[in-house]
Amino acid sequence: MRSSSTPLRTRLAALCAGLAATAALIAAGGSSAHAADTPLRDLAAAKGKVIGTAVTGSKLTGTYGDLAGSQFGSLTPGNAMKWESVEPSRGTFNWTEADQIVAFAQAHGQQVRGHTLVWHNQNPGWLTNGSWTSAQLGTLLQDHISTEVGRYKGKIAAWDVVNEPFNEDGTYRTDLWYNGLGADYIADALTWARAADPAAKLYINDYNVEGVNAKSTALYTLVKSLKERGVPIDGVGLQAHLILGQVPSTLQQNIQRFADLGVDVAITELDVRMALPADSAELAQQAADYKAVTAACVAVTRCVNLTVWGFADSDSWVDSTFPGYGAATPYDANYAPKPAYYAIAEALGGTTTTPPTGACSATYSVVSQWNTGFTGQVRIACSGAALSSWKATWTYGAGQQVTQAWNAACTQSGTAVTCTNASYNGTVPDGGSVTFGFNGTWSGGNPVPSVTLG
Ligand code: 9MR
What we know:
The chain is an alpha/beta fold. The chain has helices spanning 8-16, 40-46, 62-71, 83-86, 96-107, 125-128, 134-151, 176-181, 185-196, 214-229, 251-260, 280-299, 318-321, 339-347; strands spanning 21-27, 32-33, 50-55, 74-77, 111-118, 158-163, 201-206, 235-238, 241-243, 264-275, 303-308, 325-326, 359-369, 373-383, 391-395, 401-406, 408-413, 416-421, 433-441, 452-453. The protein has an 8-stranded parallel barrel, surrounded by 6 helices. It has a 6-stranded antiparallel β-sheet with strand order 2-1-13-14-19-16, with no helix packed on it. It comes from Streptomyces galbus. Residues 37-347 form the GH10 domain.
């Protein structure tokens, strides 16, 4: 796979594009702390790994886009490349979101993991409701793979060619593909994908195959036999949708046994869900879990990619699928890094000064702007920490002047602005946030300052 190192020019462009907010962090105890100086993607690259995230194309602007572009070296479209997304009606294709994500990745020097070509889920109704002979179904699948893989030829580092082919007991899932084509649909799909893009690494991806168990052993046996038969298989994806405190003890051993078969391994969809509301103890356990998974990947040379399934708690599939559970990702819903973020950084060899218990962050954004005026906002959010009072300070770099504030008392002296809490909003609970706003004047430019919380 291509290295994730990025030309400075590209990284600068990524930083400048849509930079709408800055965040400052303070520790639970009030000592100064900050996010890892080195982005996760650079820490991972130094270990010979690529760190990725699943993304939604429409969200790739503002803070979400900044973080997706700067912290991760690989993107996986969460839904955009699935069959129901790209061919909702037979012969009518919609590549808009998939194209957008691929273009974003190229602009940010990132790999793309293509997801996914053959799956039991998220297929279009015309396909699942149709009545097909085996030959027709095979042709449909071959055409689908040739079309999609061919479209992105040379732009996809790895394809999850086959997704979730096994039941928990290691038997094949009796889905549309197995029922219509038999177990060889897997070998055929891999062969067709190889023909359409010889450079892309081809994976089989599944969940609950992180530890050594019946399901992962079935996957192991399949990969071994595909290799023996000369079928193109380059890697296995361990999805890793984990429950708090339940990282399998055999994770590293399992990664190693696949590596020893001569295939790459990727952690493809990592998240760690917990009972809501999240408290400090849960967030600390989650950090330990993320650290353990990252360390297991770091320990095995052929574990090449570690991808989180959404990087922020506001962008996770977990909450709607498991009511009462959530907070599964490394950033909270306000894009403040959680203890899990720092745990990943540490497992990748980074050093941070953040307390393991969590932090509060202040995020400045320009809400609206006109000729010479603007409305700004600062959001103070805590995760794994709490505040009973707060003070946010920043220095304007382009002559801006605060004229009026609400939900805070703000003063400006020269270029220095100091805002303190109102009588009613000094408390920011663990997992909560407070927002204050202000109007100001500007001329020439209105760059976003860095906010210090203290
Ligand atoms: O994140 C995806 C979510 O938006 C979809 O609603 C869901 C539908 O099945 O699929 C999610 O992604 C899945 C991935 O494609 C395969 N592994 C399990 C993921 C979580 O369900």
